[in-house]
Amino acid sequence: MPITTVDQDLEALTLRVVAEFPIPVRRLWDAYADLRQIERFWGPPEWPATFTRHDMFPGGRSDYYMTGPEGEASGGYWEFVDVDEPRSFEVRDGFTTSEGEPDPGMPSMRMTFEFEEAGEGSRLVTTTYFDSLEQLEQLLAMGMREGMTAAMGQIDDVLQDPTPLDPGRGTVSQEIGDRRVRVSRVVRGDAERVWRAHHEPELMRRWMLGPDGWTLPVCEVAEEVGQAYRYEWESEDGSERFGFTGEVLHLEAPRRVVTTERMIDAGPTETVNELTITPLENGTLVSTLITYPDGETRAEILGTGMVHGMEDSYARLEREVLQGA
Fold this sequence. Notes:
The protein is globular and about 70 Å long. It has an 8-stranded antiparallel β-sheet with strand order 1-2-8-7-6-5-4-3.
C-alpha cells in the first residue's frame, strides 16, 4: 500500500492523500496519462473503471464509468484546468448522468495531483477542494475516502507492469460496451511528429497503407470542424481500390480529433472515430475509440483483420517516418 497519510481538514474543506512509490516521477506520471493504465486503478476493486476518453491537456476532458458487482454503472468526468507535464495537473471532477453529461444533481470538486521526487522514488500528493462543508460531508458519507484508499491500493501492480508502455507490444484492441472498440499503440516518436503524420498528406502516403502492396493516391485531409476528408487506396497493380470519407466533428490539434467515417460506395454504415495523441516517456500513445452502429457491425469489421492492418501501418510509421526524426 503506497499511501502514507490521508488527512481531511474541515476548516480548509480539503481531503489530502499522500502516497510514495519506489519509481521515478515520470513512470508515475505515465500511469496517470495513459488511459489504459489509469483505468486499472482509478476505481475501487469492486467497481473497476473504464475510460472512454482521457485528454490530458488544458481544456481537455476525461470520461469514465465504474461498473459495480451487479453490473450497475456510475459515471464520472474530469475537466483539465491545468497540466504541467510531468509535475502536476488540476481537474474539475464530477459525476455524469447515464447519457454521459455532467449530473446537475451531484456535486463537483477541484482536485490537484502533484508529482514530486522523494529520495530514490517519487511522491504523489492528491488534494480535493470542496465548495462547502455540506459537500465535503456528503461525499465522505458516500465513501469517497475509502474509495480513494482502495483504488490507490491497486497502483503497485500497474507500476510494476511495463507491458502497456512497450512499443514492441504492437497494436492491441479492447472491446468496450456493446458497440465500441479501442485500438491503441505506443509508437517510437514524439507526439508533435505523430500528429503531423496523421494530418499531412505527404507523410500519410508514406505509412498509412495497411499491408504491403498498396498506395494512397487520394489523400484529401480535413483541417477544420465541418470539413470533409477523403482517402482512397489502390493496389500497386491497379486491380483493387477502396476508400473512406467523413467529416471532422471536433478538433483540438495537436492532441485530439473526432471524425465520422464511412466506406465509399458501400452503403450508409458510419462510425465515429476519436483519435487521441498522448506523449509518454518512451514514445507516443496513439489511441482510437471507434463507435459502431451495433455490435454485429463491430464484429464484422474486426473480423476483417483491421487491427493487423493498423499494426502494419504503425510499424511503417515508425520505420519510414519517425525513425531518426
